[in-house]
Design a protein that fits this description.
- Substrate binds at residues 152, 173, 211, 237.
- The protein is of the alpha/beta class.
- It folds into 2 domains: 29-150 and 239-279, Bacterial extracellular solute-binding protein, family 7 (D-Maltodextrin-Binding Protein, domain 2); 155-235 and 291-340, D-Maltodextrin-Binding Protein, domain 2 (3-Layer(aba) Sandwich).
- Helix content is 49%, strand content 16%.
- The termini are far apart.
């Protein structure tokens, strides 16, 4: 009996030791994560919020070491680095990768379509999350959307843009393939510049105007110092999404519990980011006004024309790429479905109301 008890205790001790070793092995999971944003651009706060939340919630199972954009590699290289596993994760804005697939563009932003609440609804309840996994999955990555900002500021520059007629012949810094196509239809030309180059481009007259982000981010980037005029609203990016790319092998090495914790942290950060950015946008707008920035509002007629051009550009892009079509089909289906409740809840509705959407039938014909 003593021998049996001794054997049982020995077996128990071995089991405890094995469990401890497994726990230690799990605790040794360490990720290196960077982002597309340098320290001087306020969008990095969204990345930091998620990392801090994960490191707090996960405990000993995973530690993420976060490095600001540009400290490990140029921001343009984080996609390849995450795909290949050189780093485990990177914060991004999906639109930067539209050269790999045009489907990344609507995953990042839309022209005159979704607002921030639309992205939140669509990602969490109307199938959007799965489409991020499908698009990024083709590049050996898992994607967790964790940031949403509402519509961007608009164009800032040294000359006023009071109507879409004033866009004729203007050279404007603008991100996004669809956005550039709409601008071209309006008579302007798209100039591609990194965020860190915009200030000097406006100051030196290299561009007639530029967009970048929300008023809070724009103000902290110093644009009030070089741009006297501000054209609103930001129709070119009616909302934006940010998130974290995670190498597939690094993700698979995590326990299901830890994976779920990362998802929960992403959802919490996404809700926080929308409120945070709206507060920052409000305070930034106040500061631009105090600095004497002249704000020019486009008319309803101008916005209606932009919507019409946008609808055509969306259909055109959908017919060029099946995945691009699939993403937009899902987005427009959401807007049509949600309209059943949204439109009768005006003026207390939580989303954008429009009676002029891109044609689902035309998109379906290209799928």
């Amino acid at each position: 009996m003593k021998k049996m008890n001794k054997f049982a205790l020995t077996g128990l001790a071995a089991g405890v030791a094995l469990a401890a070793m497994s726990s230690t092995a799990q605790a040794q999971e360490q990720w290196t994560m960077t982002t597309t944003w340098p320290d001087n651009l306020d969008l990095i706060q969204i990345d930091r919020h998620w990392v801090e939340l994960v490191n707090h919630l996960v405990g000993d199972e995973l530690t993420i070491e976060f490095r600001a954009g540009g400290t490990l590699m140029p921001g343009t290289e984080v996609f390849d680095a995450t795909q290949t596993g050189s780093i485990e994760a990177a914060g991004d804005w999906p639109g930067y990768w539209a050269g790999y697939s045009p489907a990344f563009s609507p995953l990042a932003t839309t022209t005159s379509l979704f607002n921030g609440v639309d992205y939140l609804n669509w990602i969490m309840e109307w199938g959007g999350f799965d489409l991020y996994q499908e698009v990024y999955g083709d590049y050996n990555m898992v994607y967790l959307p964790y940031g949403i900002t509402n519509n961007e500021s608009g164009f800032r520059g040294g000359t006023p843009i009071e109507s879409i007629a004033d866009l004729e012949g203007k050279r404007l810094r603008l991100s996004g393939r669809d956005q550039g196509r709409v601008l071209e239809e309006l008579g302007g030309s798209q100039v591609t510049l990194a965020g860190g180059e915009i200030y000097q481009a406006i100051e030196r007259g290299v561009v007639d105007g530029a967009e970048f982000s929300t008023p809070g981010v724009d103000y902290k980037a110093g644009f009030s110092e070089v741009a006297d005029y501000w054209s609103v609203p930001g129709w070119h990016q009616s909302a934006s999404v940010f998130g974290v790319m995670i190498n597939q092998e690094a993700w698979d090495a995590l326990s299901e519990e830890t994976q779920e914790t990362l998802k929960i942290a992403a959802e919490a950060t996404m809700a926080w980011s929308l409120a945070w950015s709206e507060r920052e946008s409000t305070e930034g707008t106040v500061k631009f006004k105090e600095d004497g920035t002249e704000i020019n509002q486009l008319s309803e007629e101008d916005l209606a024309e932009i919507q019409e051009i946008t609808n055509n550009v969306i259909v055109q892009g959908a017919c060029e790429d099946p995945m691009h079509a699939k993403v937009y089909h899902s987005m427009i289906s959401y807007m049509e479905h949600y309209a059943n409740w949204r439109d009768i809840s005006v003026p207390y509705n939580m989303s954008r109301v429009t009676d002029n959407l891109p044609s689902l039938e035309e998109i379906e014909a290209c799928m």
